[in-house]
Every structure is written in structure tokens, then in C-alpha cells.
Amino acid sequence: MGNEIKLERHQSTILRELNLILQREFPDTDYINSLTVREVRLSKDLSHAKVFYSSLDSDAPVDDIKEEVEEYLKEIRKILASKVEMKSVPELKFEYDNSLENANNIEKILKDIK
User: Fold this and answer.
1) pLDDT in tens, 35-93
2) Which domains does the chain have, with CATH numbers?
3) Which of 27-59 are b and which e, b meaning 16 or more Cβ less than 10 Å from the residue's Cβ?
């Protein structure tokens, strides 16, 4: 149980810090400063983290966003390392979260049915 609490705490800390980093540290990028981290899932050994994100810019091409995230990934991880108190910062894998778009599509379909 203690490990689960530790895992949750680290996930929450990484989520908060990543959101701050993306908004504040990359003002001159095309897409990164408009991203929102929605969820962080850490592996049990804290060595890997899946980072689910979405964009505030609904017109931004997802492939371009992914490309820019990959371009700045090492720098993001380096900044994160300076912000969190962990023995080692996990390897980050960013995944685009399209659940909001899916929910909007479902809502639209349901409205059309009525």
C-alpha cells in the first residue's frame, strides 16, 4: 500500500511540474506551450512514465505537435529533473490524448439522433 501512495504522489508531482514546464519554459515554440498534460502513468519501478497530453489549439495538426514534442523531449526531461525530488527521473513517453475529441464526437452524434 505504501508503494501505491508513493507512486500516486510521484505521478501527481510529475503531472503538475510538466504542465508548468510546458507553459513557462518554451514560449517560442509553435505548440508545446499550448499543451496540457492530462495524466501521467508511472511504471512500478518509476523508470518509465507515459504522459498523456492534449492541445488547447484544436486546429493544430497532431503529427506536427508530436514531432515538436519529440524534438524537445530531452530538454523537457532535463528541466523536470531539476524540479522533482526523485533518485532518477523516468524516461518520458508522450502520448496524444484524444479522449476529449472522442467525447465531443459522441455528444454530436447523440444530438443528431434527437
Assistant:
1) 999 999 999 999 999 999 999 887 889 999 999 999 999 999 999 999 998 889 999 99
2) 2-113 (3.30.300.20)
3) eeeebbbbbebeebebeeebeebebbbbbeeee
